[in-house]
Amino acid sequence: MSRLFGLIGRKMLFRLDPEDAHGLSIKALKTGVVPACLPNNDPALRVAIAGLSFPNPLGMAAGYDKNAEVPDALLRLGFGFAEVGTLTPRAQFGNPKPRVFRLVEDNAVINRLGFNNEGHDSAFRRLTERRSHAGIVGINIGSNKDSTDRVADYVAGIRKFHSLASYFTVNISSPNTPGLRDLQARESLRELLEKVLDTRDAQPGVRRPVFLKIAPDLTEASLDDIAAEIGSHSLDGLIISNTTLSRAGLKSSKSTRETGGLSGEPLFERSTIVLAKMRQRVGTDLPIIGVGGIKSTATAIAKIRAGADLVQLYTSMIFNGPGLAREIVNGMSTTLKRDNVSTIAALRDCDVDDWAAKAIPV
Ligand SMILES: Cc1cc2nc3c(=O)[nH]c(=O)nc-3n(C[C@H](O)[C@H](O)[C@H](O)COP(=O)(O)O)c2cc1C
């Protein structure tokens, strides 16, 4: 945790409702009050996947910058890439407030935001304004709650943002939009991938990678189905995982019974097991981004050793402040030097079998 954030920032922010605190942090990044804190530019941390060259493997996960207000400010905090969204075609308010809850003793959060966002048009305007800026900015797309054709909403996202996205994430794993996770079932997934990837392939210019973001609450049989289905499409990678519906093992005295998706420390084990199981199923060629409970250099490297090419975080930044990305990235360099490993990519898959042998917690 950075000193300043540890001394005053966290205390002040934690007095506020979590959503208000989030709004304030976005404002702070927008206005430039948060100083840039770029990590060492270590070539050993570069990762090349899906036709993109990432300066380091740590990204900001979707949900922090839902409306594409601060992607460049996030990159200046040391993230190697930033994912904005989830964006739906039309603006929507999401679920009634309060809808985000801190579980302080668990370093975790439960959210049931329900894809609150300003819609495609406003994000399109913001991203157009920054289009000449360097840096990898992914766009996470979803469907409106009241949509009558969910697949069409994803297709609209690809069309709208194709000229602006470094990559796309097709998010079918939020637990807060009723029915959305059903798109992970094999027949639905087939139709979705066919239409989304055909649309991507029909766009002029550069081919944009498309990643699929899945839930951590899947059975071994569902993982088999997803792996089999993606094998017959030109999908560029997986993001594993979104938040969980599980409440197993929580220590907090407050808010554990709130409905919504749980993220942060208690998600680490589950999402890493699912990641390794998926790595075993899809083989070594398909890129995977590991996300869920990363809070340190050690947990980021553990995800990579469990099968991830890249990693992302969100919740631990709420607890540890804006200096966390740089701390983790610099720690990766130190670890590589200490262990005499030439590149971060060399660590991928070292522990896949150990992680994959564990049962997905119930
Ligand atoms: C408040 C909040 C909002 C989120 N919103 C989204 C979202 O809009 N789209 C999405 O794909 N994931 C969303 N996520 C999930 C994160 O991207 C990530 O997959 C999950 O939180 C696990 O990572 P973490 O433990 O590092 O937070 C959200 C998470 C949180 C805590």
Protein described:
The protein is 37% helix and 15% strand. The chain has 362 residues and is α/β, with parallel strands linked by helices. It has one domain: Aldolase class I (TIM Barrel), CATH 3.20.20.70. Strands 3-4-7-8-9-10-12-13 form an eight-stranded parallel barrel, surrounded by five helices. The chain is globular, with a radius of gyration of 19 Å. The model has no long low-confidence stretch (mean pLDDT 95). The structure holds flavin mononucleotide.
Secondary structure blueprint with pairings:
Layout: H1 3-15, H2 18-31, E1 47-49, E2 52-54, E3 58-60, H3 71-76, E4 81-87, E5 100-103, E6 108-111, H4 119-129, E7 136-141, H5 150-161, E8 167-171, H6 186-202, E9 210-214, H7 220-231, E10 237-240, E11 261-264, H8 268-282, E12 288-291, H9 297-305, E13 310-313, H10 315-320, H11 324-338, H12 352-356
Parallel strand pairs: 3-4, 3-13, 4-7, 7-8, 8-9, 9-10, 10-12, 12-13
Antiparallel strand pairs: 1-2, 5-6, 6-11
Helix pairs in contact: 5-6, 6-7, 7-8, 9-11
Short description:
37% of the residues lie in helices and 15% in strands. The protein has 362 residues and is an alpha/beta fold.
The CATH topology corresponds to TIM Barrel
Number of helices: 12
- Topology, number of strands: 13
Question: What would you report as the Rg, rounded to the nearest angstrom?
Answer: 19 Å
- Helix/strand-derived category reads alpha/beta
Major sheet: size, sense and barrel closure?
8 strands, parallel, barrel
Global mean pLDDT: 95
